[in-house]
Amino acid sequence: MSITRRSLLMAGAALASTWNARAQNRGDVIIAKQVADRIKEHVGIPWATDTVDGIIIGSPGITISGVATTMMATLDVLQRAAAGGQNMVITHEPTFYSHQDATEPLAKDPTFLAKREFIAAHEIVVFRLHDHWHRMTPDGIDQGMRAELGWANHAVENSAGEFAFPASQLREFAAAMQARLGARSMRIVGDPKLPIRRVIARWGYASLMPDLINAAARTDVDLIVVGETREWELVEYVQDQIAAGANKALIVLNHVISEQAGMKYCAKWMKDFIPEVPVEFVPTQEPFWQLKSSRA
Length: 296
Hints:
Structural class: alpha/beta
CATH superfamily of the largest domain: NIF3 (NGG1p interacting factor 3)-like
Shape: elongated
CATH class of the largest domain: Alpha Beta
Number of strands: 10
Strand content: 15-25%
Mean pLDDT: 91
Strand order of the largest sheet: 1-4-3-2-10
Order of helices and strands: HHEEHEHEHHEHEEHEHEHE
Number of helices: 10
Largest sheet: 5 strands, mixed
Radius of gyration: 23 Å
Distance between the termini: 84 Å
CATH topology of the largest domain: Udp-n-acetylmuramoylalanyl-d-glutamate--2,6- Diaminopimelate Ligase, Chain: A, domain 1
């Protein structure tokens, strides 16, 4: 019997079909929609209809080879995920530069087009997990940040985001945070020698009002920690507190670093219900760097 190229291709296709069928029976094949559905099932709260969460780009029917969790689906993150064999990216923050991931204003923008083309060429699916990750009990970001910083045992009961510590100077406290998080661009307001005992943390963006005005005004709170904030709100308020004689401090970590560990925890969380493919954390690069400060 002669063996032709066509017969080899047909045999190969049949064999591939058999392998795929067996893999499906074993549960080794999973598509993007199945990953998304399992996330929705495991958050432990009803899935909201008014939410930014869900598939942002990519086909729900794409077969997934690996899952990457990340703080922000930058092009650099997507490139590293693709190189690692991960074609589904679970991101906490937007992919296309606005909270709602609106792409209409970017229709002719070369950076947007390059990113979209990379996603399409590598058959990547991006799923956003923001609202529900925060609304879970416990909050997924807070869970990860507490673990990364070693603050779990310092949490004040029944007071979200509040922590109590043995007294240490602000300079030392900030240095320990920087080392734990690998931060290179955190900014600090306050006397480097100020004793820190009571801390209020708001991961990610935080405004003064209504988010923090009551906490910042408390005389027993020494330090506020945030990811980012407007300088004419919370920063100015803390500066004025200090000028008025209060013992106060503020640490601005930057947004990526202030929530990054929450998405590291997300990978660990997802491994329990996505056994078919590897689930790995791909860190987002901290965007800022600083010249050495002359103070502190």
